[in-house]
Specification:
Distance between the termini: 45 Å
Number of domains: 2
Number of helices: 13
Largest sheet: none
Radius of gyration: 18 Å
Number of strands: 0
Protein name: BROMI protein
Order of helices and strands: HHHHHHHHHHHHH
Strand content: under 5%
Helix content: 55-70%
Pfam families: BROMI_C
Length: 244
């Protein structure tokens, strides 16, 4: 039901000019038989984890691995069309891909391993503003960002979403904010980790689906409210650890 709902919603929005912040471009999927060996070692590891998790959740069939590799490879090629060349000594700007694509993997699981559906959804989704915040590789080396922003190698999620989480944390949860301050560690670092991984390894699958759906239906600011609500939920544990 969720797969059908987000599919129809995104398809409807991507047809509206006022909702499209980015151009989709024209991309035809590479229909070659993509194997895991074609991917980087980090991506191969991510594929193994995703397939293992998908089977544990009873969402994937035996032949799902090739489908996921197909999706990741095509996403990389599709996003490469909208990247700019940057000369930089920063390691994060040396590669065309920005690590493992947790968002594309999450959508692959939501679509129960249907590679064509997943790829079509991601292409349509890439037009919308929310894609910049949910799908982090979307803006890696992107031509949609000012060249100075790209050269810094800092993703907009860090200086937009994570920054606003810190601002809200001061007002909503001052004790948690103080605890972080005393530890010398920033909440934005934690938030960036959560958001990059789509909360994998932090939340249950149903909650991950709710997070993705909420941000798609209600807007990217719900990413910020989600992080604040998690900090509120963890407040007692955080304070206990601070005392210890």
């Amino acid at each position: 039901v969720l797969a059908e709902l987000i599919e129809k919603f995104v398809s409807h929005l991507s047809e509206s000019r006022t909702e499209c912040y980015f151009s989709m471009g024209s991309y035809k999927a590479i229909d070659a038989d993509v194997k895991k060996e074609n991917l980087s070692s980090v991506q191969q590891l991510g594929v193994e984890m995703t397939i293992r998790y998908g089977k544990y959740l009873n969402l994937l069939k035996e032949d799902a691995e090739n489908g996921l590799c197909f999706v990741l490879m095509n996403c990389e090629e599709f996003l490469k069309q909208q990247q700019r060349t940057v000369i930089s000594s920063l390691c994060c700007l040396q590669e065309h891909s920005a690590g493992y694509d947790w968002f594309a993997s999450s959508i692959f699981l939501i679509m129960a391993g249907d590679r064509e559906k997943t790829l079509l959804f991601l292409q349509q989704f890439s037009c919308l503003l929310v894609s910049a915040f949910l799908w982090l590789p979307r803006l890696h080396l992107s031509m949609h960002l000012p060249v100075t922003t790209v050269e810094y190698g800092i993703h907009p999620v860090y200086f937009c979403s994570a920054h606003h989480v810190e601002m809200l944390l001061k007002a909503e949860l001052p004790l948690v904010c103080s605890a972080f301050h005393m530890s010398g560690f920033t909440p934005s670092q934690i938030c960036l980790q959560w958001i990059t991984q789509c909360f994998w390894n932090y939340m249950d699958w149903s909650e991950i689906c709710h997070y993705i759906a909420m941000c798609i239906f209600l807007g990217p600011d719900y990413q910020i409210y989600m992080c604040i609500s998690v900090f509120r939920h963890l407040q007692q544990d955080i304070l206990k650890h601070t005392e210890a």
